[in-house]
């Protein structure tokens, strides 16, 4: 059990590092206001809840192309 827990912890750390890299790159190329960032956060939380925590690139592309 402890081995599985350690493996998951290492994987989560690696995912967090990759996410931090992506967020840093996006922040560097976008000039977003705080209010826009808050609205985006709320929208993303609601979307992930709606899709039951399963998100694909196709879902994101369809969402970005919609008028929602």
Describe the protein's architecture and organization:
- The structure is a single chain.
- The chain is an all-alpha fold and 68 residues long.
- It folds into two domains: 1-31; 32-68.
- 79% of the residues lie in helices and 0% in strands.
- The protein has three helices and no strands.
- The longest helix is centred in the first third of the chain and has 28 residues, at 2-29.
- The relative contact order is 0.06.
- The model has no long low-confidence stretch (mean pLDDT 85).
Give the CA-based shape. Answer: extended
Number of strands: 0
The domain count comes to 2
Q: Work out the radius of gyration.
A: 15 Å
Sheet bearing the most strands, described? none
* Gap from first CA to last CA: 43 Å
Helix/strand-derived category reads mainly alpha
Beta strand %? under 5%
């Amino acid at each position: 059990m402890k081995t599985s827990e350690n493996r998951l912890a290492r994987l989560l750390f690696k995912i967090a590092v990759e996410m931090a890299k992506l967020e840093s790159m996006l922040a560097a190329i976008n000039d977003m206001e705080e209010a826009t960032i808050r609205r985006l956060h709320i929208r993303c939380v609601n979307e992930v809840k709606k899709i039951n925590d399963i998100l694909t690139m196709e879902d994101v592309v369809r969402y970005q192309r919609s008028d929602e």
